[in-house]
Specification:
Layout: H1 5-27, H2 32-52, H3 72-76, H4 105-109, E1 117-122, H5 127-137, H6 144-154, H7 156-160, E2 164-167, H8 172-178, H9 182-194, E3 204-205, H10 217-224, E4 228-229, H11 235-238, E5 242-250, H12 254-265, E6 270-278
Parallel strand pairs: 1-6, 2-5, 5-6
Antiparallel strand pairs: 3-4
Helix pairs in contact: 1-2, 6-9, 10-12
Length: about 280
């Protein structure tokens, strides 16, 4: 692992401490004296946690002011996606033409199945790739919270109009091997940030696809054909709903398109997409 166990354990400890305190806080809402005592206890616990596990950058482990943050160097290494961007694909434009809802040539030539996609940043070498890989391949579950919070801000317009969140599922065999689904972890973090419902059992991955790395765009689409389905018993919960699909990275769009297609066939009113990072070609 790129990070030592102490750093990861510290972040998990702080998250657990905050969650436990929040639960007690809610139960003590009607007792002002106990509430003040809990406030002092929470401050003391946070101070102790910072002394034992000093806040460190999520990427380079450099000193930062608070847990779950990036240092200035790593922050500057992230190429955030901000307006102006294609209203459909969420890919950035090189110039601001001052026109709302403008579509890119790619969106016009090959419209995606989903309605809109948004991402926090470009997927490229540096902090973004490191964060994604550490969450996905190195069991850094403590990263899901901060990454999910950034996604909640980047996808505000999608989430405001959505009924529920659906993480892109893994095939059961891959899930057994990996032991967790990074899309599920991100969806849970977004759900907490926005007080939104996360439904992980509405969409099933029924086809064990080969890895997409190294495949052409056409091959990726063929590989994902028929990969997802909505079980009959889940269709009443999908029909008429505005759904936001959650994943870590959007590359060619083959996986997201296949998942969105299955939800739309099951009666979803609209499917939008929110990811932490997306591949942007050119520009």
């Amino acid at each position: 692992m790129d990070f030592d166990d102490t750093s990861a354990t510290g972040a998990i400890f702080v998250a657990a401490e905050r969650t436990a305190t929040q639960r007690i806080w809610k139960s003590a809402a009607i007792v002002p004296g106990l509430k003040r005592g809990l406030e002092r206890s929470r401050a003391s616990a946070s101070l102790l946690a910072d002394l034992v596990f000093p806040p460190s950058c999520l990427c380079c482990r450099g000193a930062v002011g608070s847990h779950g943050a990036l240092c200035s160097n790593c922050w500057s290494g992230i190429n955030f996606i901000e307006k102006p961007y294609c209203d459909r694909l969420g890919t950035p434009f090189a110039y601001d033409l001052g026109i709302e809802g403008l579509l890119s040539p790619e969106a016009l030539a090959d419209p995606p199945v989903y309605t809109r996609a948004r991402a926090v940043a470009r997927f490229a070498d540096g902090p973004v790739r490191q964060l994604v890989h550490r969450l996905k391949y190195h069991d850094r579950m403590d990263l899901a919270g901060p990454l999910g919070a950034w996604m909640a801000r980047a996808g505000r317009e999608l989430l405001d109009a959505a009924d529920l969140l659906v993480p892109v599922p893994l095939h059961r065999r891959r899930l057994m091997w990996r032991q967790f689904n990074q899309a599920q972890a991100l969806a849970a973090a977004i759900g907490r940030a926005r007080s939104m419902k996360v439904e992980s059992n509405l969409l099933h991955r029924i086809k064990r696809t080969t890895p997409q790395i190294g495949l052409s765009r056409v091959q990726r689409a063929s590989n994902m054909q028929g990969a997802f389905t909505v079980p009959d018993e889940a269709k009443p919960f999908v029909e008429g709903r505005a759904i936001v699909l959650i994943d870590d990275v959007l590359t060619s769009g083959a996986t997201i398109n296949a998942a969105a297609r299955a939800l739309l066939r099951a009666g979803a009113a609209r499917v939008d997409v929110l990811v932490f990072a997306r591949v942007v070609t050119g520009g």
